[in-house]
Amino acid sequence: MEKVDIIVIGATGFTGKHVVKQLAAFSKHSTYKTITWGVSGRSTEKVKLLLKEIAENDVDTSKILTVISDVKDENTLSNVTRRAKIVVNCTGPSTLLSEYIVKACIQTGTHYVDISAELYHILNVYRAYHKLAEEANVLIVPSCGFASIPTSTGIILMDEHYKGSLHTVECYVELHIPRECYFGGRNKALVHYGTWESFVHELSNMKKYKNLKKLTFPETQNEPLPRELKKSFFHKHEGKWWFTYPGPDTEVDFMSQMYFKEKMGKKPVHFKAYTTMPLIVHFFIIIPLVFIAYYACRLKCFRHLMWKYPGFFSFGLMSHKGPSEKLRNDLKYTFTLTGKGSDSTDKPYTVKITGSDPAYHSTAAAVLFSAVTILLEREKMPKGGVLMPANVFYNTNIVERLKCNGINYEIVDVDSQPDNVSK
């Protein structure tokens, strides 16, 4: 049976196609030319169309392993996972589909990365499969896309170079949305429907996640929050108003810090992220609507309405067609992470991470180089388990790989430190 290094499952979906196209592009690079790979999807016709698109970019598709499978069919799924060293899961919503793939990977001894941002799913997988994955020496690494690779790698970089004992990290996340999309509208979509579907699942499961977190980490419930992180929901910073970032990054980092504390005896680094909006009027429109949706999503009928009419509920920013290439490339992002030590005399340390097309190009680069880093630096990682990105990539060169592929890292306001730090 032919076996390859990496197989992309869900390769014919909107995000999966971007991952496969990037994989095809970088596999022509001399550094990664020896990496073998394949694709998997449910539809033979869609897989053929994907290979035809790739072939138009001078890629020899005869060397690409193709496997047709349904993730809910145990037999066809295990036929996929046993034929790869690492599976890149691009299916969704993760809440409905990813557990099947995780289970199959553990059974066949295959490492796993995904692009999930669904916290309830991530914590459920951790509770159900961490010990099994650890015993099988298999790495199960969720949240390896735009959520939460930039923040995880930023904290890794900061922790390795900080002069002192890193105690807190604050992260300001800014999406630089194209002006023509400020108020949505026809043909102004920035995100594909698949992301919207997962978002609705996440809203409906948020209360369950909070309860499950209390059960999983009861010892942390009464820990005091460092003073510098005690900010009101809205606060002003460098002339802009910010509020708590709704992405999974803070919770994913929390889980990684719990692992570092348990396995390495490291003192936890406290992390919190914030974000802003282009115009003040957005604060008065979008945030109240999100709170309404949060409570309304507990009703099955309302969830189905949100899934049925994504354009209406998102002001046209989500669609089944997805964003145009121009809008994707015009959407930029900046993560500004500032770390402080436990000693008040320690100098703050700032890492800035920038890029474009967060949902697709950057997500594809993040998840692919997560897989490649496991492939090339496995000996530097824990033996197995359901682990967060920071736990797996702590001693690796993932930052250098990402810097060469569209995600930029810069160290600012630090004495005697260069702008770009090699690890």
How would you explain this protein's 3D organization?
It is a single chain. By secondary structure, the chain is an alpha/beta fold. 44% of the residues lie in helices and 20% in strands. The strands form 3 sheets. The protein has a 7-stranded parallel beta sheet with strand order 3-2-1-4-5-6-15, sandwiched between helices. Strands 9-10-11-7-13-14-16 form a 7-stranded mixed beta sheet. The chain has a two-stranded parallel sheet with strand order 8-12. A hairpin with a 2-residue loop joins strand 9 and strand 10. It is globular, with a radius of gyration of 21 Å. The model has no long low-confidence stretch (mean pLDDT 92).
Q: Which short descriptors sum up this protein?
A:
423 residues; alpha/beta; seven-stranded parallel β-sheet; seven-stranded mixed β-sheet; 15 helices; 44% helix; globular
